[in-house]
Amino acid sequence: MTNTSISRLQGASVDYAIAAFRVVVGFLFFCHGTSTLFAWPTAPHSGHTAAVGAWPSWWGAVIQLVCGAALVLGLGTRIAAFLASGSMAYAYFWSHQPDGVLPIQNNGELSAIFCWALFLMIFLGGGALSLDRLIARGGRTAQADDGATAGESGPTDELREVNA
């Protein structure tokens, strides 16, 4: 196996790992929204769903539902991640920070982890198997020999350049 083949394999692996990360984080985020809005798959921690229009619980849950679904599909990944990350930063500072300085002291670990994981996705993009990538290709499934379409770049392209 040549150095070019190895770098191409590493690039594809990274791209699929990003996609898996996006889908898992998006699904978990989506589940928080459905729990708060519909008590599905389980009732929220408070035991009752948010009242329609209630600030910030209902609005936060709508963001979780919509952005979580968008992330799972890889549709508008960077925009959805930006909005979702901001909502988790708000949740942390508004709801958790007053109870203690550190996330472990104020039960804000989940908000902090979601905030930073989603923040990372702003820069990583959707990875492989995302609707964003399919749309950028114009619906084509075939790719150029380097695995990226013209004008589309991401973290795997930079890895290919480093490993070449």
From TrEMBL:
TM annotation in the entry: 20-40, 52-72, 79-95, 110-131
Membrane topology: Multi-pass membrane protein
GO annotation, cellular component aspect: plasma membrane
Stretches the record annotates as Disordered: 144-164
One Pfam family named in its UniProt record: DoxX
UniProt keyword list: Cell membrane, Membrane, Transmembrane, Transmembrane helix
InterPro entries in UniProt: DoxX, DoxX-like_oxidoreductase
Family label: Belongs to the DoxX family.
PANTHER family, per the entry: BLL4328 PROTEIN (PTHR33452:SF4), OXIDOREDUCTASE CATD-RELATED (PTHR33452)
The species this protein was found in: Rhodococcus wratislaviensis
Subcellular localization: Cell membrane
Highest taxon, organism lineage: Bacteria
Protein name per its UniProtKB record: Oxidoreductase
